[in-house]
Amino acid sequence: MLFISATIIFIDSSMDSINKTMPDISNSIVNGDNEYNEAVQLVNDKNFDEAKNKAISAGKDYNSSLDKLNDIRNNFSSDINNVQIEYIDTVIKELELKINAVNNLKEAIGCFELNSNYTGTTYASQANDLIYESSEYQYERDLIVENNSDLFKQQNFII
């Protein structure tokens, strides 16, 4: 009986840990999105130094969220159900695309700084395509929450 109690407490504490981490992950994604959008606007305004700084910040935010989600997936997978795993995997795919978009945007900025506009536009277009593709995963995770609202209301598991 003592073993069962200890296991339940560990599962509860691991879910508490996950639930406490989710808002940080969400905030980092929102911040990354804002920084990315600002970087794009700064590129359009030809303010390349500040655009590069914003893109770097966006990348850091996305990577921070990705690291935390991978940590949850790798260390707590036995404590979360298949729907939550699917949700985490979907957000990870979204973040990987956003990180690739940031990398393409930084390449575009470097090209624009050197007046290599054709190549810069190619990188910028690829970044835009990746962001568009990431929005499809964002929509997919919203559907997961919508289709499992009781599960997600029960816990603070939403990003």
Uncertain segments: 1-12
| Number of contiguous helices | 5
What is Rg?
Answer: 19 Å
Structural class: mainly alpha
SSE topology string: HHHHH
Termini separation: 36 Å
Structure write-up:
This protein is mainly alpha-helical and 159 residues long. The chain is built from five helices and no strands. Helix 1 runs parallel beside helix 3 and helix 3 packs antiparallel against helix 4. The relative contact order is 0.13. The N terminus is likely disordered.
SSE topology:
Blueprint: H1 2-44, H2 48-76, H3 82-113, H4 117-147, H5 149-154
Characteristic terms for this protein:
159 residues; mainly alpha; 5 helices; disordered N terminus
Summarize the structure.
With 159 residues, the chain is an all-alpha fold. 89% of the residues lie in helices and 0% in strands.
